[in-house]
Fold this protein.
Amino acid sequence: GIPRTPDGKRDFSGVYGFGGGGGRGRGGAPAAAGPQLKPGAEKYRVQRGPQDTGRTADCMPLIPPDAFGVPYEFQIIQNKDHLVIIHEYPGTFRIVPLDGEPHQVDPDPAWLGDSVGRWDGDTLVIDTIGYNEKTEIAGYRHSDALHTVERLRRVDGGVDYEITIEDPNVFVAPFTQT
């Protein structure tokens, strides 16, 4: 069966690997339709020159879903108050409060943003704002308006993962990847 915490929530504690390839979840399901760039937002498209060895060459933090798309494992540690996600690459971690408190009013921009978690039945929902503008998502830079909502559901043998990505300054509409 699926492990549970003493208070009856699904326990995500463990070591996982989605097998690499951003935008793929359990079972290697293909990602949903990608983003549609907003008219006039072409400046956000990432352009790589011939000497650029890619988005992971500088070993800087990756935000979801790319944080789960590298071929390195990650670990989740959970108790009733917090969920901690530790990424082997590039050695980053997120602490997600699970106490139902709202986001900070004006969070300082951070590599991995300001995350808060809540339960929707057996699904853990992680809502994140306050990203700095130093990362990319789906081949685009983003603005400080980036907002992500991750939905994690513990299943036999792993985690089902879905993320909805929204940046009204860059994309026409929110889009979802699994």
Observations:
- The first strand starts at residue 14 and ends at 16.
- Residues 20-31 have pLDDT under 50 and may be disordered.
- The two ends are 23 Å apart (CA to CA).
